[in-house]
Amino acid sequence: MGKVGKIFAWMAADLARARGAAGKPRTVLCPICCRSEFLRNALETHELTEEHIIPESLGGKEAVLSCKSCNNTQGSRLESHLSGAIAAEEALGGAGALRSVVNAGAATVRGEVELRLTANGTSVIRVSDKVSNPSEIRRMQRALTAGIRKMELEVNLGYVPARYRIGLLRVGYLALFRLLGYSYTLSPALEPIRRQILEEDPPNEDVQLLSARVPGLDSAMTSPFAAFQPQPESQVQAFLVLAVLRRAHRHTFAVLLPKPDLAPEAVFRNLRYAAKHLSKTGIRVVA
After folding, report:
1. 121 and 230 co-located in one domain
2. Residue 237: which of 219, 251, 256 has the closest Cα?
3. pLDDT tens readout for residues 32-70
4. What's the structural domain count of the chain?
5. Boundary (domain end) residue, out of 128, 156, 184
6. Cα(11)–Cα(22) distance, rounded to whole angstroms?
7. Which domain holds residue 51?
8. What is this structure's pTM?
């Protein structure tokens, strides 16, 4: 049957269960836009494509199926910002490089700069001759040798923060679809989340509150993603998704998503409360 065939089979069976449909499952619905429905032959025409829950560039292996538009257009755009944000974090910590412009005297070098913290607490800026103009590097060397000690460094972090946050929201959404199926993603509470992921609505300012880095769990996570519910007494109407993204290092992120019984107009208000409550009280979860 093959990998994508097996994914099609469980998605089709799950969609039939969610709809209470009788008979042999025949179709799947794109779980991101929830508008495009496909028969199995859509795998051959590539209208239905393999969609990694965590991007492949960040260590993702588990996948679902989504329509070509959601995968190739919107998916790749958000993935680039998510990957760029993690690459920038690693580079600022000394593992990787940042696209930069370095000015010293009359010399300007455009390329990648590595920031490496040495034992005595100073940083080393390393300009790569593979991506810089060699004549400009020589000019910079002459300027420094002549006594110029002032350098200007302009760093391009390579991502847009708002899209980076939506990229994390998308990872959490797909992880919950894989764990809970269509009965969750087809609930009205998920419509405002989808509209943010698809960038059909203006960016909601609360999206930046819905994801956070959780460094203490980087070595504790044994699966690529998991979902939890805060303890009932907290009155938090949200799921907490933990996902591990990898480049040079492991990075664990927490993403908040709504319970399915919330009214659409109350989703972001409740998630804002959940984010602020958990930031004050800490996280106690049950599987």
Report:
1. no
2. 256
3. 999 989 999 999 999 999 999 999 999 999 999 999 999
4. 2
5. 156
6. 15
7. 3-86+160-286
8. 0.87
